[in-house]
Amino acid sequence: MCGIVGAVAERNITPILLEGLKRLEYRGYDSAGVAVLDDGCHLHRLRRSGKVAELEQAQQEEQLTGRLGIAHTRWATHGAPCERNAHPHFSGDDLAVVHNGIIENHEALRQQLKGLGYTFLSDTDTEVIVHLLHHKLGELGDLTVALKSAVKELHGAYGLAVVSAKQPDRLLAARSGSPLVIGLGLGENFLASDQLALRQVTDRFMYLEEGDIAEIRRDSVKIWDVDGQAVERESVQYHEGAEAADKGEYRHFMLKEIHEQPKVVQRTLEGRLGDHQVLVQAFGPQAAELFAKVRNVQIVACGTSYHAGMVARYWLEELAGIPCQVEVASEFRYRKVVVQPDTLFVTISQSGETADSLAALRNAKSRTEGEGRYLASLAICNVGISSLVRESDLTLLTQAGPEIGVASTKAFTTQLVGLLLLTLSLGQVRGTLAPALEAELIDELRRLPTRLGEALAMDTTVEKISEHFAEKHHTLFLGRGAQYPVAMEGALKLKEISYIHAEAYPAGELKHGPLALVDADMPVVTVAPNNELLEKLKSNLQEVRARGGELIVFADREAGIENGEGTFIVSMPHIHDVLAPILYTIPLQLLSYYVAVLRGTDVDQPRNLAKSVTVE
């Protein structure tokens, strides 16, 4: 979740570190800090609770300069958000560490290090790392050797950056379960937890793999793998335009990303559709052979990605005729699972570094034949160099591009598109999907970006409706069938960024309890495509009207639902029922955005949340 930036150069790197932290603000954080080594080989540190702007103000007063340094934005896991718990952490006055992740055996290490005479000044798990490394450095004399020894005693997840006043020519890094990328320059090199932090200084990157340790100097990079062997990691050029980190004409990144959805959905479809069918090889060269054997699907994901998986369950069972289970990764990884024969294990993640999803995948891949093996693993992900992608047998990369707003929007719709492509591919290969229906859906997918554009054109209408929520504290979302997960996603978005308590229910469940909550102060938001469940849904809406509830209904223009007292209808473009969950997501995203703006919350960086959840 946290952000790391590091640099070693012949120029003053403090502005680079601070700019990198600003570019990582989208990840969510509660404090920030920087440590630089000056020309006299003295290590100086600044830390502030709150935003990077607070740290920048302190830097203007202190004027730290140096050619080697590290910086960090922290999202609290151990210890309250305050300056003494902010990174970097020191041991003595000559060794500094920043850390993403969680050290699970920190308590045992803390007691061991106290016994060696170390004093702890924070409540963090990270401080054990810097003291352990200091101890190892005293024994072994070389910082790189000391880091290789120290990480062997760390249990948990970590992305580390290290600098020492005693060896001022190098920046060290170590990765286990938390991503790190090296930025390559001319006579200077950089380190970050996300390449976006370094786009102002380089477009060439080298991605550390699980277990890697790196020694980064101005003119060289050395990497050792988990077995201690020297290795070469491929350097790649990053082509994504700088505009990805710029709001452009939009007030917030979230609004920009909502409006990017026609474009990114088009990109996700490109090269994957034939004349009348999905190109199955888009999932990998082995996909057709593996898909022919699939008899069950297990989907594991978190948050918004979990809602995408729930929609996919309806598609997989209805269109491909394949039983599907969907489970939250944090629950799945800790229970005993009975694996059905020939099960495809599917993980969904925007970042590909989500800790619970990654752990679930690794647990699934570790199962022996006697316990019941999964047939294969598939990742649907937005980041091609992520751990989830590298560790899965098959991959479908969504093409959402960088998503800066914490509340996921375009990542969700591209995930849905990817899952529909998976459904059609499985149905095609297994012969359970009629060719005529597949051809029809391919045509509908080609028109989908246009339909999404039509939904976005309702922007002003949705903004007006958002005024009904300005003073409200609770909201119900209703949907039936595949629209129920869409209602769940709408409720999640509203609570994430407006801080209004929101719940979602299958509309038919309303009379089994939630109806007790309905009154004039409880808006009820409903998605109503024109399908076989429409008449049932209309009956549910009458139940709300009869209790004096306020209804906001996003309804197909052919649905026959009319405005009335306490009922506000937003007319939606007509679309094939299979694709309706993708389309009906758009107005719910717009609604949550405009409600949040009215309430004056921090839309792009909602409180207590982080973009990429890389800790348990």
Q: How far do the termini sit from each other?
A: 10 Å
Count of runs of 4 or more consecutive helical residues: 18
Main sheet: strands, sense, barrel: 8 strands, antiparallel
Count of DSSP strands? 25
Main features:
globular, 25 strands, glutamine amidotransferase, transferase, alpha/beta, 3 domains, 7-stranded antiparallel β-sheet, GlmS/AgaS_SIS, 8-stranded antiparallel β-sheet, EC 2.6.1.16, 18 helices, Rossmann fold, single chain, 616 residues, cytoplasm, Glutamine Phosphoribosylpyrophosphate, subunit 1, domain 1
Explain what the structure shows.
There is one protein chain. The protein is built from 18 helices and 25 strands. With 616 residues, it is an alpha/beta fold. It folds into three domains: 1-235, Glutamine Phosphoribosylpyrophosphate, subunit 1, domain 1 (4-Layer Sandwich); 247-432, Glucose-6-phosphate isomerase like protein, domain 1 (Rossmann fold), CATH 3.40.50.10490; 456-605, Rossmann fold (3-Layer(aba) Sandwich). The model has no long low-confidence stretch (mean pLDDT 89).
Compose a concise summary of this entry.
Helices cover 34% and strands 22% of the residues. The protein is α/β, with parallel strands linked by helices.
SSE blueprint and pairings:
Blueprint: E1 3-8, H1 14-23, E2 31-37, E3 43-49, H2 52-62, E4 68-74, E5 89-91, E6 95-103, H3 106-115, H4 126-140, H5 143-151, E7 156-164, E8 171-176, E9 181-184, E10 189-192, E11 204-207, E12 213-217, E13 220-224, E14 230-231, E15 235-237, H6 253-259, H7 261-269, H8 287-291, E16 296-301, H9 303-320, E17 324-328, H10 329-332, E18 343-349, H11 355-365, E19 376-381, H12 387-390, E20 394-397, H13 410-430, H14 435-456, H15 459-465, E21 474-479, H16 483-498, E22 501-506, E23 524-528, H17 534-546, E24 551-556, E25 567-572, H18 580-599
Parallel strand pairs: 16-17, 16-18, 18-19, 19-20, 21-22, 21-23, 23-24, 24-25
Antiparallel strand pairs: 1-4, 1-10, 2-3, 2-4, 5-6, 6-7, 7-8, 8-12, 9-10, 9-11, 11-15, 12-13, 13-14
Helix pairs in contact: 3-4, 4-5, 7-13, 7-14, 9-13, 9-16, 14-18, 15-18, 16-18
